[in-house]
Structure formats: structure tokens, C-alpha cells
Amino acid sequence: MIPELGQMALVLALCLALAQSFFGLVGAQRGSGAWMAAVRPAAVGQFLFTGLAFLLLVSCLLRSDFSVLYVAQNSNTELPWIYKIAAAWGAHEGSLLLWSTVLALWTVVVALFSRSLPQQFISRVLGVMGIISIGFLLFMLTTSDPFTRLLPAAQQGADLNPILQDPAMAGHPPMLYMGYVGLSVAFAFAVAALIGGKMDSTWARWARPWTIVAWLFLTLGITLGSWWSYYELGWGGWWFWDPVENASFMPWLVATALIHSLTVTEKRGMFKSWTALLAISAFSLSLLGTFLVRSGVLISVHAFATDPRRGIFVLALIAVVVGGSLALYAWRAPKLVSEDGFSALSRETFLLLNNLFLVVAAAAILLGTLYPLVLDALNLGKISVGPPYFNSIFMPLMLPLLILVGIGPYLFWKHDTLKRLLSQFKITVWIVAAVSILILVMLWGRAGIVTVLGVIIAGWLLISTAMGVVLRWRRRQKVTRGIWGMTLAHLGVGILALGIAVTSSFSVAEDTTLAPGQSTMVHGYRFAFDGTHNVRGPNYQAIEADISITRNGELITVLHPQKRIYDGASSSATEADLDPGLFRDLYVAMGDPLGNGAWSMRLQYKPLVRFLWFGGVLMALGGILAVSDRRRFATVIVSKSADAQQAVAKG
Amino acid sequence: MKALLFLLPAGILVLLILLFWRGLYLNPSQVPSPLIGKPLPQFSLPGVGGTPASLTSADFEGHVSILNVWATWCIPCRDEQPELVKLAQQKVVTIYGLNYKDDADSAVQWLQSRGNPYAKDGYDPKGKVALNFGVYGVPETFVVDSHGIIRHKYIGPLTASVISTQLIPLVHELEQVSK
Amino acid sequence: MRYIALLMLLVTIPALAVDSEPALPNAALQQRYELLTHQFRCLVCQNETIAESGAGLAADLRAQVRQQLIAGKSNEQIKQYMVARYGDFVLFKPPWQPNTWLLWGGPLLLLCIGAFVVINVVRRKTQLVRTSPGEVNGDDLKP
Asked: Which residue has the higher pLDDT, B51 or A318?
């Protein structure tokens, strides 16, 4: 009964999404107030029914209802209840339902928080979001129904992949989806503006907060994923340039460019068609990610079990949604020209450069990710593109950008002079010079030129960003939340860059064999193997090793890496253990038993690796601060009428 | 001109969609063999107990052959085994086996209980010869012509359809050429 | 289909490959070993190098690399050995050859095109600068 209720809820949600789209888009076109008034209720209804379907699936999982195929394939009575819930998004059908639910959630939030926006505009926005909802609901109902029955019901379900039974892993998809799906808001805003033929600073001011929120969720989702893979996968890696990782990184890069481009449109009414294109592209890359994970077109550890039929559906969805919006763009965007200008030395130019580097980076990653497919499809050979490629093209693009980020926030809009700009850096230059000399002294001979450059540039960024706030204080200027947001986000970037530079070059890994009682030195730390013992976990058996780590005779910690065999599995899984620290991690993973109690092990010293995720979190915090700038929201409401008049005048 | 520029994103999308559509019918993880068109590697292996002793590269000269890489621990190999036996019974082509990283006793047992399609079966417990063939998984099947040149590699378990549409026509073609 | 499922199973439960073999006779060889094993893709766990992968094939290939290093082969020869058997796919870093020129040159090309566009936009915009006072907030450094 309950699964059938779930299916019905989805059908009802689809009907409401159809209503939402129809009344939204046609209503706005006809200027019919009555029709447009129907959009919000439809959106709320769609959210309620989609949400209901999701809760019903979770209920089937919690009750271990193995008459539902999805539950039988992805859950098990032995699974801790938290992971039964996480199984809701652990496989294809469930994750689609999560996608739809998150989309419905964003839709209803947009519907409820947009009272101050013109009705025609918001109807179009909700109408466009409705079309995307229709796409995903149809996808589920036609090819990927999470409520399909399994009759006769199974006695017991299959087990969730054991390495996915982890809080970070459970939380990573919802966080990412909030980001991916959130970019549909900026997308809908852009399409609605293109349909209406009107895009101005007000539009940008409305669109920006939504984009920042989606962006910060995406930032957190990616950070979580990286952190999880670091402690879970056993070899201390934190980014693999896997196609699906790239599929989350590309929208992030474009969304970052979008936030900055929206600033220019908001402040100066320029870059309008470019901003629209970015908004469309960011969400398109989200959809592309959805395609890549489910179609089997690329090799990835993240891929769900694939089926060409699913791939075809998502491809059709992309063709309709992205194709439609790009056609609209080609038609309407040429009219969005601004007659305003700016000097070569201005904030506009630097933001344009920001966009250049971010977009080229995203395009380069897309090239590398799809290249093997292109060659294979054209019968030109079979190659694979891995981290060496991505690292060598990505780093050179980021270094110039990081330099620019330290300068951009200081520049005036429209016109600035070199003399005035340089005057801002009088103190900064000395601090950076001193720090750079320190860095050179510390790293000389110990690291390559690229690393040294990377560390110095990261240092430059951190100092310059911090000084931006210091100079304001000195001038007794107000530091708004918006400025704090930007500052924190840029500091986050600097810390991330510093972490990457240092951990990539200075990590030490030693593969060695130790018998109980033996020890070895890694970067000044003595790792002593004290022996192993057996442990029993909730759903696994394990051999646990005791590794005491000392430095200069003082005990730092005792680590307990394990070799686990999950119940029902035939191969073992490595569970690494680590000692986290602000400035370094110590990391141990077991290899194979070699007889007489000896084991092969990998022992690692990883400096500043936490800075990676700390940087990510800081960026997200910056985003939260930027969005919570109340002055900005007040302006939106207060100047609504003024802007509406202005917008009409500009036509 | 400017209008064309605005159509560029849409144009790129069309290309990408075509690419992905084609990609849906490709298999990204299948590694094609660079040995196609090259002579098979020189080797000499002892036989798996129960079949005539030894399999060497010389056995491939003078007639078209099929080399099937298999193991008892490989589940898809169980599926393709009956098809191989059927093919052997048709006496269309000589089938040799390469027993990959397996236990000799299990292999003998397997062949006795399930039937032996192999004229000769080489025993490669360390997989060293298989490495020279570029084997990266089981089962894999090679078609070798009468001059010892590798002409085709099929990755995955053989099915009746694959045998009849890919292998047998190729075998006939190669036999014609060598006449 | 099941073969793919099995492959997926192998891929989703990664076993750490910690080298259980003793180190090579001299440090230079060991260093080359580290370098080389990080250059070849494991064909079973296809997103890992043979250095990291826990698959049996990876262990076999590592043993091959070790053997060949001891036998005095050069890095290039060992690379050729792998490519002859598994094709370009086995190289973790795409080789520089006609069918990868676009791959390696692409990003630079994109950057040049982008830079060209930016220069043109800035040039056009500087011509449009109107010196109307009051449009710029002198102290407005808000993002």
C-alpha cells in the first residue's frame, strides 16, 4: 500500500508541476493575474507531494519493506537506521527522488520568499523550474520508479556498500544536490529575464543571493566529499579528478564566475548577456553531471549501475532544457547591450579576468573529461586522461587568478589609476616581501619552483585580503557583512591554495613492513607497531593494529588502523586511522599480513592537509555572511517600486 | 556575424549531445588490444592435467585458431563454457585454452565435469604469458590466423550470438585468405 | 552484464595496495620504480595507478616493472613494454601524439581565445567611458 501511495504522490506531484509550469509561463505571457496567482499554490502542492513520496520511500527503508525492489537492493535489516535513511539516495532511483525533492524545496522557497518581485517575472521563474521538475518526475515515473515492487518479497536485502556506511558519505549527496539543484534558480532567473526581454541591475540583485546559497552548498558538498575520500579510501588522497568529481567541480567554477559576473551586472548594469549565459551554463553542467553518473559513458567509481535507456532520457532532458534556453539566449541576448563603459584599470576589468580564468579552467576540465569519449566515438584510439593531465593544466590557470584576487577588491569601479591603486599597497608590499623572503629561506632546495611560487602567491592573497579590512578600519569605513563575506571567502581560497601547495609537495609516505615491536621514522615521528588484536564491529570482523607514535620520546597518539571483513563480503576493506592536527596529519593504513604477525603498512605525514577543507568551509562561511547582509535585503524591498519604474523606463 | 556568435553555445550543445548519444553505445572501460595485426607472442606452457601436454606458440601455425583465456574462479567463464563446448563439437576451428592464475586440480576437475572444449590447454599459474597477450581480465578470447597473427580480441563471456556473428564469420574469412 | 557488475564490485571495494615486496637493491632504482608505477593505469581498477591498486593484475604489473628495472631496462623501454600490450590507455598521463594534440593544446588555445575576447571587450568599453561625475562611488569598494 505504502509504495503505491508513493507512486500516486509522484503522479500528483507531476500534475502539479505541469500546472505550475503552464500557469507560470502561459499566465505570464498572457498577463493573466488569475493564472499567475495559481502558480504559488501549485508549487507548494508539488513540494508537499514530492516530499511525501520521499518520506514514504524512507519509511519503506526504515521498515525494511523488502517487497519494494529498491529497498531490497539497497538496504538490509542489519543496517543502522541512519544508513537505512541514507540508502534513500544511495542508488539511482532514490537519488532521483532526492533530486526532485530538493528541486521542489528550492521551488517552494523561491515561491515564498519572492513577494517583492514582479508577478510576471516570478511566475516565469517558477514556470521554468516547473519544467525541470516535470522532467525529473517523468524520468522517475517512466524509467526509474523507486517504488517498483519485488514480488515475492525478498527475505533479506542486499547490503549497502560498506564503505558508504559513513556519516560524511551519507551527508555528501544531499549537500551536493542542494548546490546542483540550487543553480536551477539562477538558471530560471536568467531564462525568465530572457523571455521577458528585460535584464537589469535589479534582476542581478535578486539573482545573486540565490546563486550564492546554491554555491555555498556546492562548496560544502565538494569539501565533504574530499574529506571523506581522504580518511576512508586508505591512501591519503583528497582529489582524484574522477569524471564525477569533475562533474561537481565544473559547475562550481562556473557558479563562482557567475557570482562575480552578477556583481558587475548589479553594480553597473553590464555583462548582462554574459551573465545570462553563465547562469544557463552552470545549471547545464549540473545536468551534465547527472547524465555522466547514470549513463555509463565515462569510467568512474561514482557511477550508479547504468542503463542506456536512462542515459537517453537525461540526454533528452538536457536537449530540451539546455537546448531550449540556449536557443532563447541566441534569440534574445543580442538585445541586452549596455552602452556604459569602463577603463582598462577598473574592477570591471579584473572581474572580467576572474571570469576568464574560471571559465577557461572549467572548459579545460570538460575537455579532459570528455576527450577519451571523443576519441573513442570517432574511432581515433583509446586513451585515458588522469590526474597528471588535470594537474598540469589546472595549476597554471589558478596561479594568475590568485594573484588577481588579491588586487581586484581594491579597485574602484569604472575608472582607477595605477598611482591610487599602488598607494593602497604601501604597507602590504612590505609584509608580503618579508613573508616571501621567509618562505624562500624555509623552502630553498626543499621544494620545486612551482611549489615555492604557489606558497608565496597564497601568502600574497591572504595578506592582501586581510589588509583590505585593516585599511578600512584605519579609514574608519564601515565593514559590512557583504565585505566580511567576500573577505572570508577569499581568505578561504588562500588557505585552500596554501594547503594544496604544501601537502602536495611535502607529504611523506613510507611503505614498509613491520613486525610487532618494530618501529620506523617518518619525518621525525617514530611509528611503532605494537601488535594486533581482533575486534568485532556492528557488521564486520576486523584485525586491528596498535601503532604508537612518538616524537622526541614523547607519546603523541596511538592509532588503530583496521583490516575489516564485512559480514557477507569475501574481500577485506582497509580502514585507515589518522591523528588529525591543525598543521599536520599522521596517517596509517595496513596492507597485507606477511606471516609471523608482520604486516606491510603505509605510514604518512601530511602537512597542512586540513587547510584544504578548512579553506572550503571558510569559503562557505563567507557565502553565508554575504547573503545575510540585511542592508542588501532591505534595499531589495524598499527600492522595489523605484526599480520597477526604472526597469519599465529602460524597457 | 554577432548573431552567429550567440548561436555558438547552442551549436556546442548540439555537438555534445551527438557525442553523448554515440557514447551511450560504447563501453569506456573496454581496452582494445594493440596486438591486433601483430604476431602472437612466443611462449611455451605446460598443459593442464588431463589435456595433451604443453601449449606453445608453434601450435598456432598452419591453421586458424581461437585462444580462450579462462579460470575456474571466474563466474562469467561458467556462462560461456557450454557455448565453447558446442563450438568445439562443431569442429569449425581449433580451440586452445589458457588457464589463467588458477589451481591445477580445480582446473582439471572443471574440465572433467563441464566438458573440455580445448584441443590443448596451457597452464599459466602466474599469468606471465597472459601478460604478453595484454590480458587484463577473464574471460578473453583471441582469434589467430594461420600465420600466427592475432586478428581479433573479444572481451567478456562468449555468447551464442557473439560466436555466430563475430567469431565464426571471421574464422571462415581467415581460412579463405590462407587458401 | 554480470561481468560489468563484478568489475563494479571490485572497483567499489578498494583494497589498498601496499607494496609487500622488499625494496629494490639501490635507491635510484627504487625511485624509478615509484615513478614508473605511478605512470601506469591499472586496467582493473581503472581510476588508479598500478602503484595504488589492490588488484591482482596491478601486483603482476608492478612485479614486471621491478623485474625489468633489475634487468637494466630504461624507463622508456618499460613504458613501451606496457603500451605494446595494453595500448595508450595504460598510460596515466596521455602521451603527446597526433590524436592528443588537441587535448594538450586545447586549454592554451582556449585561454588565448578568451584573452582575445577580454582584450576586445575592454578596448570597446574604454571607448565608451563617459566622464559623468557622480556615477562612481569613490570610496565604494563594496563587492
From this structure: A318
